Amino acid sequence: MNSISIRAGALEDAEEIFRIHKDSVVSLCAAEYKSEQIAMWLDGRSAETYVEAIVGGNLWLAQGRLIYGFVEIDGHEISKLFIRGSMAGQGIGKQLLELALEKICSAGYSTAYLEATLNAEKFYERFGFRKIGEGTFTRGNRPVPIEIVKMERLV
Ligand SMILES: CC(C)(COP(=O)(O)OP(=O)(O)OC[C@H]1O[C@@H](n2cnc3c(N)ncnc32)[C@H](O)[C@@H]1OP(=O)(O)O)[C@@H](O)C(=O)NCCC(=O)NCCS
C-alpha cells in the first residue's frame, strides 16, 4: 500500500468524503443489511453533511494517493468512521479510530461512545468497546429502520 498520512478535513474534501461514505456503506455494510436499508442509508445527505464537523475541526482523513477513509467526532462520540471499500482491512480504520480516541481523551472526556453498524461491532470490540444497548436510526421520507449497537469504552 502507498504510505498514508492523517490530516484534518478541509471544505474542498466534502464531495469526496460523501463519495467515500456512500462507497463504504454499499460495499462494506451490505452483508448485514437489506438492500432497502442500504438504499435509504444516506437519503437526504450531501457534501453539506460534513461541513459543520470540518469547520469545527472534528473530522480527519486518511490520505494516500486518494482519500481512503474518514473519522468524525462529536463531543465524546465517534459519530462516523468509514473506509473506502477497496481499502478495508489494511489498518486504516484502526489508525483513524486511535486518532479519534486521542482527540476525545485530550478534550477531557473519560469515555468514548459510538453507535456501531452490525458489520462493525466486532471491529470495535477488538479495540475494547463493549455493547451497552441497541437502537435504530432512520432517514428519508419513507423511513426504514437501520439497526445499530450502542458501544462504549474508557479512553
Ligand atoms: C469497520 C471499519 C471502519 C474497519 O476499518 P478497516 O480499515 O477495514 O479495519 P482495519 O484494517 O484497521 O482493522 C483493524 C483490526 O480490526 C479487525 N477488523 C476489521 N474489520 C473487522 C470486522 N468487521 N470484524 C472483525 N474484525 C475486524 C482487523 O482484522 C484488524 O485486526 P488485527 O489488528 O488483529 O489485524 C471499515 O471496515 C468500514 O468502514 N466499514 C464500513 C463502515 C462502517 O461500518 N463503519 C462503522 C460505522 S459505526
What does this structure look like?
The protein has a domain of 105 residues: Aminopeptidase (3-Layer(aba) Sandwich). It is 30% helix and 31% strand. It is of the alpha+beta class. It has five helices and seven strands, in the order E-H-H-H-E-E-E-H-E-H-E-E. The protein has a seven-stranded mixed beta sheet with strand order 1-2-3-4-5-7-6. The mean pLDDT is 95. Strand 2 and strand 3 form a beta hairpin.
Kindly estimate the percentage of residues that lie in beta strands according to DSSP.
25-35%
Q: What percentage of residues falls in helices of 4 or more residues?
A: 25-40%
Which value, in Å, is the CA radius of gyration?
Answer: 15 Å
Element-level helix/strand string = EHHHEEEHEHEE
Spatial sequence of strands, sheet with the most strands? 1-2-3-4-5-7-6
Query: Which residues form runs of ≥5 with pLDDT under 50?
Result: none
N-to-C span: 30 Å
What small ligands are held by the chains?
Answer: coenzyme A
Examine the coordinates and then state which fold CATH places here, giving the name of the CATH topology of the domain at 5-109.
Answer: Aminopeptidase
How many H/I helices? 5
- Write down the CATH class of the domain at 5-109: Alpha Beta
The number of strands is 7
Q: How does the overall form come out from the CA principal axes?
A: globular
Largest sheet report: 7 strands, mixed
